[in-house]
Amino acid sequence: MKMQLMAVLMGVGLLAGCGGVEADVDAPVDLATREDELPACNHQSFERVFYSEPEKINEVGWWTCGCDSNTAWVSGRTTAYSTTFGATACAQW
């Protein structure tokens, strides 16, 4: 009886695995359910382009801020490597 119980528990352990189900990183993201906030523009108008490397060759994303909104329009992904174009302060609201 004790050996049967140990065999069953061992079988269940093998079926369960060690880490659960892996997340599918290639699955499309449902933007309607994302909870991260859009970046604030801090009452400035500008465009910021993000690159995949320090040499700033391959664009991987961008932000666009306009005076009509205080949150950025975002596309792609952000990285530590960016260039900001056309930064100007917006008139007070």
Strand order, largest beta sheet: 3-2-1-4
| Number of DSSP helical runs | 1
Shape: elongated
Largest sheet: 4 strands, antiparallel
List the secondary-structure elements in sequence, H or E: HEEEE
Can you give the mean pLDDT? 78
Estimated share of beta-strand residues: 25-35%
What's the total number of strands?
4
- Label the structural class: alpha+beta
Unreliably modeled segments: none
Instruction: Calculate the terminal CA-CA distance, rounded to whole Å.
Output: 78 Å
Radius of gyration: 24 Å
So what's the oligomer here?
Answer: single chain
Helix content: 10-25%
Structure description:
By secondary structure, this protein is α+β, with helices and mostly antiparallel strands. 16% of the residues lie in helices and 30% in strands. A 4-stranded antiparallel β-sheet has the order 3-2-1-4, with no helix packed on it. Strand 2 (59-65) and strand 3 (73-76) form a beta hairpin. The longest helix has 15 residues, at 2-16. The relative contact order is 0.20. The model has no long low-confidence stretch (mean pLDDT 78).
Break the fold down into its secondary structure elements and pairings.
Blueprint: H1 2-16, E1 44-51, E2 59-65, E3 73-76, E4 81-89
Antiparallel strand pairs: 1-2, 1-4, 2-3
